[in-house]
Design brief:
single chain, mainly alpha
C-alpha cells in the first residue's frame, strides 16, 4: 500500500472507530468500502482484526447493558452464517467482491432507514446472526443486520450487545479464514500500522458516547455508506 493510500485508510479508521465507539455501529460500513477501493485484498481480514480491540473496548465500557439472551441467539446464527460467507470468498473474484460489498452496503443502509419499530425475539436474533455471518465473513461488514434488530432498544444495550456479538463473530470468522489460508503476513503488517489511529478514534469516542444523538449518528453512517457503496460500484463496473 502506498503512503498516500495508507494515510487515507488511517484517517478513515480513526473516524470509523470514533463513530462506532459513539454510536455502536459503522466501523466496517465506513472502512470496508474504502479498503475495497484502495486495496481489496485486505478484505475482510484487516477489518476483522481491527474490530477486535474496538468491540472489546465498547463491550467492556457498557458491560452492564449487554443483552445476554440476544447475544446467545445471534451468535448461534452467526456461526451457521460463517459457512455462507466462506463460500462467497471462494466463489467471487476481487471485482465481484467489490460489487458485492457496494451493493450490500447500499441495500443495508436503505433498509435501515425504512424498517418499522419492533421488539426483537428469537427468530429476529437468529436471522440477524445468520445474515451477519455471511456478510461479515465475506466483507468484514456485519453491523447492519444487528443494528436493524436492536435499533429500537436503549442505546447502551444496542452498543454493548452489538459489540459482544461482533467479538464472538469476528473470532469465529478469523479462525475459519486462518484454516483456509486466507490470513497473510501483509494483513498483520497493515493491521499493526492502523492500530494507533484506531486507538485515537476509540479514545475520542469516550467523551461523546453518553451525549451524542444516536439517531443522528446512525443517519450519518448510513448516508456515508450509501455514498461509499455507489462509488465502489461505479469503480467496479
Amino acid at each position: 500500500m502506498s503512503t498516500p493510500d495508507l494515510i487515507i485508510v488511517a484517517l478513515t479508521v480513526a473516524f470509523a472507530a470514533f463513530v462506532q465507539g459513539a454510536s455502536g455501529l459503522g466501523f466496517a460500513l465506513i472502512v470496508a468500502p474504502v479498503l475495497a477501493m484502495l486495496q481489496p485484498d485486505l478484505l475482510p481480514v484487516c477489518v476483522l482484526f481491527l474490530m477486535l480491540p474496538l468491540n472489546f473496548y465498547v463491550a467492556w465500557r457498557e458491560r452492564h447493558a449487554i443483552n445476554i439472551r440476544g447475544v446467545a441467539w445471534i451468535s448461534l446464527g452467526r456461526f451457521v452464517g460463517t459457512f455462507g460467507g466462506l463460500a462467497v470468498l471462494v466463489v467471487l473474484s476481487a471485482k465481484a467482491l467489490s460489487i458485492f460489498v457496494g451493493a450490500s452496503t447500499i441495500a443495508a443502509a436503505v433498509v435501515t432507514w425504512f424498517i418499522p419499530a419492533f421488539t426483537p425475539g428469537v427468530i429476529a436474533f437468529l436471522l440477524a446472526g445468520l445474515i451477519t455471518g455471511v456478510t461479515e465473513t465475506a466483507t468484514g461488514i456485519g453491523g447492519p443486520p444487528l443494528a436493524l434488530t436492536l435499533q429500537h432498544r436503549p442505546v447502551a444495550e444496542m452498543r454493548s450487545t452489538i459489540a459482544v456479538c461482533f467479538l464472538v463473530g469476528e473470532l469465529i470468522s478469523l479462525v475459519f479464514l486462518f484454516f483456509m489460508d486466507k490470513i497473510h503476513a501483509s494483513h498483520i503488517q497493515i493491521t499493526l500500522l492502523l492500530l494507533p489511529p484506531l486507538a485515537v478514534g476509540m479514545f475520542a469516542s469516550r467523551f461523546v458516547h453518553s451525549r451524542i444523538n444516536a439517531r443522528f449518528m446512525r443517519w450519518l453512517v448510513q448516508g456515508f455508506a450509501i455514498v461509499s457503496g455507489v462509488v465502489l460500484l461505479a469503480k467496479a463496473l
